Amino acid sequence: MMSIQILFFSISGNTRAFVKKLSEYATTKHEEDASKPLVTFKEITDDSLFEEMLEPFFAFVPTYLDGGNGAENGTNEIMTNTLSEFIEFKDNRQKCLGVVGSGNKNFNWQYCLTAKQYAERFDVPMVDDFELRGTPTDVERVYENLVKYVV
């Protein structure tokens, strides 16, 4: 059975909460239809030991930026650097299927900017996005979009 593997980084807890809801939703879908993939996840923290990923995965990344405005004078990614370093470790980059971003829509066009930067840096699609902890509709939509890449 295929599964959807997720690596994520979360400081505020929003991304962690969303991934847990996504996993619960996937379990419900799998119980209704055994062909639907489950979700497994691994939180990457500053204390994580890097390992080579054996299976393809999606990266879920919140947006934390410092400096600049993202357009004329750029921005600096902060706090999520450990996740990008994990993806760059050994052959992990080749196993990254795509990126899902989260952020706050109050930041207008900088919404999910870190995820967009990851997608460009790792040459993978930005599969989807959600605001803050997401809604039940976001959970359903993100799950269905991830399924397209694994089945």
From TrEMBL:
Entries under PANTHER family matching the protein: PROTEIN NRDI (PTHR37297:SF1)
Signal sequence residues: none
GO MF annotations in UniProt: FMN binding; oxidoreductase activity, acting on NAD(P)H
Coiled-coil regions, chain positions: none
One protein family per Pfam: Flavodoxin_NdrI
PROSITE patterns tied to this protein: FLAVODOXIN_LIKE
Record Gene3D superfamilies: 3.40.50.360
NCBIfam families for this protein: PRK02551.1
Taxonomic placement: Bacteria, Bacillati, Bacillota, Bacilli, Lactobacillales
Domain Flavodoxin-like: residue ranges: 4-151
Protein name per its UniProtKB record: Ribonucleotide reductase assembly protein NrdI
InterPro entries named among the record's database cross-references: Flavodoxin/NO_synth, Flavoprotein-like_sf, RNR_NrdI
